[in-house]
Specification:
Blueprint (H helix, E strand, L loop, with lengths): L1 H25 L2 E6 L5 E5 L11 H10 L3 E7 L13 E3 L2 E4 L16 E6 L4 E5 L9 E7 L2 E4 L2 E2 L14 E5 L5 E6 L5 H10 L4 E6 L5 E3 L4 E2 L8 E6 L1
Antiparallel strand pairs: 1-12, 2-16, 3-14, 3-16, 4-5, 4-8, 6-7, 6-8, 9-10, 9-13, 11-12, 11-13, 14-15
Length: 238
């Protein structure tokens, strides 16, 4: 009897390992697509009292207090020690942080870096920092770096097979104009991460951040509500 039980436990364990391995290898990315014509994608940094949201949990509670549902959230770029956005940040056409064109070290400054923005006509765009121009019709924007894909090409400084591995998240523009957000479920190098956006057909994609990356997507049973961020992307509904 004991031997049968032991055999059953062994079979169940092997099955669990197989299922876990299958999920790990077949689905290494959390991917979420947004149609701006049908979904409400915005950037959030502070509440009406001027307090930083900081975490997805705080944003979720704030959204629900307004009788809305949080469908998706993800950290929206790099930030300074005071949790203010690093580089350009625009919310509801108001510039909360200016465009950063300085030269320095670190991922943000690995040129070309870039800007993701949403126009007042509900069109999403990604361009290099050098190409960005605020024409007064930009509803939301966040600057980050480096660019992952530039005009259909992987960033020239990324090396295939690089050992620079990390959890990463980013945003791209799909061929149909929709937005795609991606979070790697395992550590990955820049080249492979950028190549995934390219495989989706993204002509332009922007890196958002690394090991601090978090995402909230209850439809996929992906619940990460912690964090200590600057800006946050979110999709809400009634």
């Amino acid at each position: 009897m004991k031997s049968k039980i032991a055999l059953l436990i062994l079979i169940m364990s092997i099955g669990t390992i197989f299922i876990s391995a299958k999920i790990y290898y077949e689905d290494p990315f959390l991917t979420y697509k947004v149609d701006l014509k049908k979904q409400d994608l915005k950037l959030f940094w502070k509440n009406e009292k001027g307090q930083n949201f900081e975490s997805i949990e705080n944003l979720k509670l704030w959204v629900e207090a307004k009788h809305l549902k949080l469908n998706f959230a993800m950290n929206a770029g790099m930030y300074k020690k005071d949790l203010s956005p690093q580089g350009l940040y625009i919310e509801k056409k108001k510039v909360g942080s200016p465009l950063d064109t300085t030269k320095a070290t670190g991922n943000f400054y690995l040129k070309p870096n870039g800007v993701f923005y949403i126009t007042t006509e509900k069109a999403a765009k990604i361009c290099t920092t050098e190409m960005f121009h605020n024409n007064g019709k930009i509803e939301y924007a966040t600057q980050s770096g480096p660019m992952l894909v530039i005009n259909g090409q992987i960033h020239p400084d990324f090396k295939e097979g690089s050992s620079n591995l990390n959890i990463r998240n980013g945003v791209g523009i799909l061929p149909d104009g929709n937005v795609v957000f991606v979070l790697s479920k395992k550590e990955i190098n820049f080249y492979d991460f950028a190549n995934y956006f390219k495989s989706l057909g993204c002509k332009n994609a922007l890196y958002l951040d690394g090991f601090v990356s978090r995402a909230y997507l209850p439809a996929e049973n992906w619940i990460q509500t912690d964090g200590n961020f600057g800006a946050i992307f979110a999709v809400t509904s009634k």
